[in-house]
Structures are given as structure tokens and as C-alpha cells.
Specification:
GO terms for molecular function: transmembrane transporter activity. This is ABC transporter permease. The chain is an all-alpha fold. The chain has one domain: ABC transporter involved in vitamin B12 uptake, BtuC (Orthogonal Bundle). It has 13 helices and four strands. The strands form two sheets. A two-stranded antiparallel sheet has the order 1-4.
């Protein structure tokens, strides 16, 4: 009898762990599977290479996590990345600015776009899907207008310190990885440990109840879009610094990958749930899946299909562990 009770308690403990960390379990399973398939997968240079290449997507996903937890969407981040990269490169080459002034100017302009999103969605209560979908096209047009349809490049790359953000390293760790990790730690603490973070969860969980509780819903939503824009500006800085140039469509399509990483990390499209830590895991899953398939020698078009299948399996595992069943109880 005691043994049965002990086994039952142990199973409940394991089940509880899986329910809380299902996506982390999926990540470990994928890592072990790919490592057994190809030992090069866990080589330290390969691991840092994957994290470094995922940093741009990851930094953007950190900001979008706030927006999604707050009960909204941001589909403008891809176009906003293109705008940020083009602007900082253009101002870098302007003798009146240079890198020291180009960076804060780019942040200010990108934050203005985020503020516009926040105003329309937070204060005017417009639908976030419609607004940010429209902003996607508007910002793309703004980028083409600003650049005259031309790509941007830094002429004298050896004479500027601008490359440190995308190409530099500190203590053997690539700077993009350090930026990603530092921003994740900061935003994770803000979301989990501050009154503002609790307000974001409250607004996303039930905006009406949050308003009646005295939480300034419009202000919170506005702030989430500012955070998203700040993260996009940071990603644009890394992108421009890494390549020392950019096409005016460099961010095209990234909004869907960013949203996939956030949802893969367990954030609900209905709002009110999600964490920065799990978003980081979602980003890494996407990055390591693509890297593992590349090392396996699969063609790029096959990688798209396999990646989709693995994402579906990962999300299914996460949901199944939370409800304790592989199939929906309604089915």
C-alpha cells in the first residue's frame, strides 16, 4: 500500500514537472537526438555559432513576448528590422552623424514606430492584427522611400568600431550572444519580478478585469509595444553591424519566425501566459533544428517541412504534458 502511494506521488511529481517544463523536455530530446545522429552537433564552436545566428531572431522574440502575453500581436517587427538596419547604416555614412550619433537616432526613430503601434492599439483600442499587418506594409514602404530603393553598405569597414555589435567577442563569447543573454536576463526579471510584469499578465489574461482593478490597460499595452520596438532596434543594430550592410528587405518574413518562436516557447495567443525563459528555449529549438538538419545534409526545402513537423510535435508534447493526456478529452 505504501509502495503504491509512493509510486503515485512520484508519478505526480514527474507529471507536474513535465506540465511546467514540457517545452524544455522537448528541447533536451531534440538535442540528444541530433547529437546521437551527428557528434559535430554538440561541438562548442557549432553551439556558439547557432546561438550567434539565432541572436537576431531571439532579441526580436523577447520583445514580442511582452506583446503576446499582453494579449496582442506584432506583425510589423520584420519590416521594422529592415527600417532600423537601413537607417543606422545610412546615418553611419553621414558625416554629420557617424556611428556615435547614428545608433541613438535609429533607436529614437524605431521607438517612434513602436509608439505609433502602441497608441493605435492601446489607446484607440484597434485590433492588433489589423494594425500591425498594416504597419508591416507601411514601414516597408517607408524603408523603400527612405533608402530610395537602394541597399546600404559601409564604405570603409576597417575604419569603424561599428562592427563590434555583430562581429566582436568578449572572453571568447560572441557579442551578439552576450547581448541576447543580457537582454533576456533583464527582460525576464522585469516580467517575472516587477509590478509592471504582473500588470502585463493581468491585462493579457483579462483586460476588462484588469481595468476595473485599477490597472491602466492602455498604458501597459503602449509600453509593451515600446519594449518590442526597442528589441527590434537592438536586433537591427546587430544585423547591420554583422554584415556591415543590409538589403531593404532584410527583415522580410521574420515576423512569422519570431511569432513561431514565442508560441513554441509556450506563450498563448490569447494572452496572459508565457515567460522570457521559455521564449529563449523556443528560439534555440528553431535554431538547433535548422542546424541539425543542415548537418544531416538535407536540402533546404526538405528542412522547411521537417522543421514544421518537429515544431508541431514539440507544441503537442508541451500541451499533452500540461493536460496529462496525448489526446484532447473532448475528442
Amino acid at each position: 500500500m505504501a509502495d503504491t502511494a509512493l509510486k503515485s506521488t512520484a508519478m505526480k511529481s514527474v507529471g507536474g514537472l513535465l506540465a511546467r517544463q514540457g517545452i524544455l523536455v522537448a528541447f533536451v530530446v531534440f538535442m540528444v537526438g541530433f547529437a546521437l545522429w551527428n557528434p559535430r552537433f554538440i561541438d562548442i564552436d557549432n553551439v556558439f555559432g547557432v546561438i550567434r545566428s539565432s541572436a537576431i531572431l531571439g532579441v526580436m522574440a523577447l520583445g514580442v513576448t511582452f506583446v503576446v502575453i499582453g494579449g496582442n500581436l506584432d506583425l510589423s517587427v520584420g519590416s521594422m528590422l529592415s527600417f532600423s538596419a537601413i537607417v543606422v547604416l545610412d546615418l553611419h555614412e553621414n558625416p554629420a552623424f557617424g556611428p556615435a550619433l547614428a545608433i541613438p537616432a535609429m533607436y529614437a526613430m524605431t521607438l517612434a514606430l513602436g509608439a505609433l503601434n502602441g497608441f493605435l492599439i492601446g489607446y484607440l483600442r484597434l485590433n492588433s492584427l489589423i494594425v500591425t499587418l498594416g504597419m508591416l506594409s507601411a514601414i516597408h514602404g517607408l524603408t523603400l522611400t527612405y533608402s530610395g530603393g537602394q541597399n546600404m553598405d559601409i564604405a570603409n569597414q576597417s575604419e569603424t568600431w561599428f562592427g563590434v555589435f555583430g562581429r566582436g567577442s568578449a572572453l571568447g563569447i560572441p557579442v551578439p550572444v552576450l547581448i541576447f543573454a543580457g537582454l533576456a536576463a533583464l527582460l525576464g526579471m522585469i516580467l517575472a519580478k516587477t509590478p509592471f510584469g504582473r500588470k502585463v499578465y493581468a491585462v493579457g489574461g483579462n483586460g476588462t478585469a484588469a481595468t476595473f482593478s485599477g490597472i491602466p490597460r492602455a498604458r501597459v499595452v503602449f509600453a509593451t509595444y515600446l519594449i518590442s520596438a526597442f528589441c527590434v532596434a537592438t536586433a537591427g543594430l546587430i544585423q547591420a553591424s554583422r554584415t556591415m550592410g543590409a538589403q531593404n528587405t532584410v527583415g522580410q518574413g521574420l515576423e512569422l519566425e519570431v511569432l513561431a518562436a514565442v508560441i513554441l516557447g509556450g506563450a498563448s495567443l490569447l494572452g496572459g501566459s508565457g515567460t522570457i525563459f521559455k521564449t529563449v528555449i523556443g528560439v534555440l529549438i528553431l535554431g538547433f533544428i535548422q542546424n541539425g538538419l543542415l548537418l544531416a545534409g538535407l536540402e533546404f526545402y526538405v528542412q522547411f517541412v521537417v522543421t514544421w513537423i518537429i515544431i508541431i510535435l514539440a507544441v503537442w508534447l508541451d500541451i499533452a504534458t500540461k493536460r496529462g493526456k496525448l489526446w484532447s478529452p473532448i475528442a
